[in-house]
Amino acid sequence: MSSSSVVIIGTGLAGLTTANELVNKYNIPVTILDKASSIGGNSIKASSGINGTSTETQRHFHIEDSPCLFEDDTVKSAKGKGVQELMGKLANDSPLAIDWLKTEFDLKLDLLAQLGGHSVARTHRSSGKLPPGFEIVSALSNNLKKLAETKPELVKIHLDSKVVNIHENNGSVSAVEYEDKDGEKHTINASDVVFCSGGFSFSKEMLKEYAPELVNLPTTNGQQTTGDGQRLLQKLGADLIDMDQVQVHPTGFIDPNDRKSSWKFLAAESLRGLGGILLNPATGRRFVNELTTRDVVTEAIQKHCPQDENTSLLVMSEKMYKDLKNNLDFYMFKKLVQKLPLSQVVSEYKLPIDATQLCQELQAYSTFTTKADPLGRTVILNEFGTDITPETNVFIGEVTPVVHFTMGGARINVKAQVIGKSNEPLLKGLYAAGEVSGGVHGSNRLGGSSLLECVVFGRTAAGSIAEDRK
User: Fold this and answer.
1) Residue 207 CB: number of other CB atoms within 10 A?
2) Which of left, alpha, beta for 390 (phi over 0: left; psi -120 to 50: alpha)?
3) Which of 49, 275, 337, 370 could be bridged to 397 by S-S, CB 3.0 to 4.6 A?
4) Three-class DSSP category at 304
């Protein structure tokens, strides 16, 4: 087996997964590069959880699920775009991904939520104080940082290191060139490179090229999310697919102290999955099934809610606070969510209905636990009750659609190899995992599948490299 280091570009969950699997399972050394000055990418911000089917946690809650059902939900959400073979792999490998995180990194992943577009509750998170993305990224990065100190021959981590070129020789990857924070260039010889560099949602230039209608929307992405990986892979001849499929998440919090900011803090989909509802501030009424797919909820907000800011109101019950106390405490600390009596909600948000009518709206929603919701929502959790008054407290925040995730990228196959326009692997030793790749989600990603994609295809890339080095 070759002992040369695998170069991994990016320190989000895809890169951390690939590195941990290569080092821990196969004893293959890794060199990790990231242009950012800290580890985690956008993965560290993920706040709803990670999908998995047929898991121990689902069995504990007596939830019947299967990879087939998950694949069906994914294909339906993809709306004819993407690569179904990759969607099948995502679903089939999901129980292995959850088990890997639990057994290798001692993560609980003992709670579930049903997010939009899912047939059952399959989005896992841990009981405890840490949000899922932060918890998972921390566990994987801590392991690598420890190894970088104790076994530097096995793990090297270079931050503030921007990859600027990939060299090839006779149809194989041969080296990676990167620039440090002082502008000095370095070259690492490498027979295997895994791109885990993320999407391009922060890049106005790339949005203008692929989805110009979204250029003026705010984003939830960090400033490192500029599509460098897609550009480098395109230069090598990768087949970029679905690049115009950019997901707008329906709920980014509006900061009342900086309403016009082009960056928004994500209002996690679990807030709706576990009971939050959306009200149109122009009517004070619900207007959409909050748990349909993200694109449909976004379209409804843009169609029905005030056009100047496309603002809707995310309203949650006191009962829900017990389920998501840590999240809501954090949002309140950030002043993105308030706890208010319904009478004050009416005055503060200038609703065109009185407090009694607002009570009736929330009471009507609460009855859908026993009868059908005319808007089609079937998961009614942590409802408001049928005996509320204008003095009943709720948790409320203003939300607006935000550019969130790019489904398109470099096409890969089920071995995580980057594919060229001839539908064959582009270069020997060239892999991709996570948001830099395309084909896994089609035109709309399901909540909870971004972290899953990183784990499934990061582990796959590691396995493919190990197999090739035998």
Assistant:
1) 22
2) alpha
3) 337
4) helix
- The residues, any chain, with a CB within 8 Å of residue 282's CB and separated by 6 or more, are 304, 305, 306, 352
Residue with tokens 């329906």: 250
Output helix, strand, coil percentages for the chain, rounded to the nearest 5. 35, 20, 45
Q: What distance in Å separates the CA atoms of residue 122 and residue 125, rounded to the nearest whole number?
A: 10
Q: Which residues contact 335 (CB under 8 A, 6 or more apart)?
A: 255, 256, 257
Are 245 and 406 spatial neighbours (Cβ–Cβ below 8 Å)? yes
Which residue do the tokens 């690569």 mark? Answer: 83
The single residue of 125, 249, 404, 441 carrying the catalytic annotation is 249
Strands 437-438 and 409-411: parallel
**Which residues share a beta bridge with 195?**
9, 432
Q: Are 283 and 63 in contact (CB under 8 A)?
A: no
What is the per-residue pLDDT across 410-443, written as a single tens digit (0 to 9) for each?
999 999 999 999 999 999 999 999 999 999 999 9
Chain length of the chain: 470
Active site residue 249: yes
pTM of the complete model: 0.95
Distance from C-alpha of 470 to C-alpha of 460, rounded to nearest angstrom: 16
**Measured distance CA(325)–CA(318) in Å, rounded:** 10
* Residue 275 CB burial class (10 angstroms; 0-12, 13-18, ≥19): buried
Choose, from 118, 122, 125, 272, the residue flagged as catalytic.
Answer: 272
What ranges make up the beta strands (E) of 35-153?
50-51, 111-113, 123-125
DSSP output for 157-199: EE-S-EEEEEEEETTEEEEEEEE-TTS-EEEEE-S-EEE----
For the chain, list the domains and their CATH numbers: 6-200+407-468 (3.50.50.60), 247-402 (3.90.700.10)
Quickly count helices (H) and strands (E) in the chain: 15, 21
> Alpha-carbon torsion 201, 207, 209, 213, what sign?
positive
Q: Which regions in the chain score pLDDT beneath 70?
A: 1-3
Please say whether the beta carbons of 42 and 198 come within 8 A.
yes
Instruction: Return the HEC string of 230-256.
Output: HHHHHHHCECEECCCCEEEEEEEECCC
Which tens digit of pLDDT belongs to each residue from 145-191? 999 999 999 999 999 999 999 999 999 999 999 999 999 999 999 99
**Which letter does DSSP use for residue 413 in this model?**
-
